[in-house]
Amino acid sequence: MENMLLSPIVKQAENFLIEFDEFYPFAYAVNSLNEIKSIGVYLDNEMPTSEEVLSFLTIVIKEGILKGEYIYAAICLDVLVTPPYLNNKMDSLEIKIIDLKETKIYYLPYRKTEKNKIDFLEMYS
């Protein structure tokens, strides 16, 4: 089921990285009609931290799932982690798939090329 959100999440993150080199956490959800919807958050602070945005997105998603507005959702963050198949830290997408029962976390390491493109490596969880 999460495959429905992985592709648009990765594509949006790629666009943000190419255009801005970074991004705030963002989210998509699948609603009860099986439609993919972007989830926006509006905070009073003009320059919120990524942690504030992540926290608010998580609350909005969990409330939406409990109310039946969403079946599941995905939050994407830009993180620095060491993939299990490498010995050094790499920029990576952290994708949290949230449903009523659990949260699954996937990592997708990437490199930005000289030609302003993003090369993704192997995804792992």
Descriptive report:
With 125 residues, the protein is an alpha+beta fold. The chain has two helices and six strands, in the order αββαββββ. It has one domain (3-120). It has helices at residues 3-20, 50-66; strands spanning 26-31, 36-39, 70-81, 90-99, 103-112, 118-120. The protein has a six-stranded antiparallel β-sheet, sandwiched between helices. β4 and β5 form a beta hairpin. The mean pLDDT is 93.
How many β-strand runs?
Answer: 6
The count of helical stretches stands at: 2
Gross morphology: globular
CA radius of gyration: 15 Å
**What is the terminal-to-terminal distance?**
16 Å
Give helix % range.
Answer: 25-40%
Strand order of the largest sheet: 2-1-3-4-5-6
Provide the low-confidence segments as ranges.
none
On the 0 to 100 scale, the average pLDDT is 93
Number of domains: 1
SSE string: HEEHEEEE
Question: Which class best fits the helix and strand makeup?
Answer: alpha+beta
> Biggest β-sheet, characterized?
6 strands, antiparallel
Beta-sheet strand percentage?
Answer: 35-45%
